[in-house]
């Protein structure tokens, strides 16, 4: 089992920045890829960014050039630096980890990001 805890959400003005962090505990060695997803009101959950154990990254087109995903293996954390935020980025952001053997997904409880003036 893997436990994920997000932090760093909040209210930010358009054009501002926010940094999310996800701490993992449990069967860390079983994780192959970690990432961030988001779900806006009335919409389906969508991929934001992922990073593999080999540091290969992938971003949604809507966040490329604005968001950066990074990992700290010593702390078992994955961060999402979000710049140039727009109201369209408003959503609950979920941390994700995928088991390398079973393909099972683990999820955090989510952290709300609100971009508003």
What radius of gyration results from the CA coordinates?
A: 14 Å
What is the helix fraction of residues, given as a range?
under 10%
Give the terminus-to-terminus CA distance. 40 Å
Q: Which of globular, elongated, flat, extended, rod-shaped describes the shape?
A: globular
Report the total helices: 0
Main sheet specs: 7 strands, mixed
Oligomer: single chain
State which percent range the strand residues make up. Answer: over 45%
* Mean pLDDT over the full residue set: 95
> How many strands?
11
Structural category? mainly beta
Report on this structure.
Strands 2, 4, 5, 6, 9, 10 and 11 form a 7-stranded mixed sheet that branches. The chain has a 4-stranded antiparallel sheet with strand order 1-3-8-7, with no helix packed on it. The chain starts with a strand and ends with a strand. The relative contact order is 0.32. Helix content is 0%, strand content 56%. The protein is mainly β. β4 (31-39) and β5 (46-52) form a beta hairpin.
